[in-house]
Design goal:
With 189 residues, this protein is mostly beta strands. The protein contains three helices and 14 strands. The longest helix is centred in the first third of the chain and has 11 residues, at 6-16.
């Protein structure tokens, strides 16, 4: 696997809409090998009950998420943007402002920006499968003993694209399109 350079990423953004709703900084003056993504939505878990079942002989396992409540959303015309305060031990589900349209030959991987962990914040993330479309959802936890303020629209992570050699199978899971959570039991697809 190899990593795509910024020139290739920018061409694919124009040609394939690889990433939509990028900030001006990333369109005009990115740095390194990836693109910074911004904080778009913040959701608080308000009710538990998550369940993850093992796969069965004749079907995939059942899953049930948690109930969440939208706490804050980026407002395009608002300047300055709203802020959220993460208290010690707080945990949120957050979505990016940007959306991906991941082709079969790429695997995007997320890296937290160092400004997060330098403030005591942990961004929980994963790779993105080929075929995934939509904003990205992450866990965000405050591991410090102090409050941390984050402004909507702040750059929180860096997206790096890896080129895949060989066959892939497109993502077909329940979180396609940026779905945050689900409260009823569903069979995995």
């Amino acid at each position: 696997m190899s990593v795509l350079g910024l020139d290739v990423i920018k061409k694919r953004i124009k040609k394939e809409k690889l990433v939509e709703n990028l900030g001006q900084r990333e369109l005009k003056n990115p740095e390194g090998v990836g693109l910074d993504l911004r904080l778009g939505e913040v959701h608080k878990i308000i009710k538990g009950g998550a369940f993850i079942e093992a796969d069965q002989k004749k079907s995939l396992g059942l899953r049930q998420g948690v109930e969440t409540k939208l706490v804050a959303r980026y407002q395009k015309e608002q300047n300055p943007q709203a802020e959220i305060t993460l208290g010690p031990g707080d945990y949120y589900l957050v979505l990016t402002l940007e959306s991906l349209n991941t082709p079969p030959d790429l695997m995007p991987v997320i890296y937290p920006r160092s400004s997060l962990f330098r403030a005591g914040l942990l961004l929980l993330n994963t790779k993105i499968d080929p075929g995934y479309q939509g904003p990205l959802t992450f866990g965000l936890a405050n591991l410090s003993s102090f409050e941390v303020k984050l402004q909507l629209g702040a750059r929180i992570c860096n997206l790096v694209f890896f080129k895949i050699e060989g066959k892939t199978i497109n993502y077909r899971g329940q979180h396609q399109g940026g779905r945050v959570s689900f409260t009823k039991k569903e069979r995995q697809v």
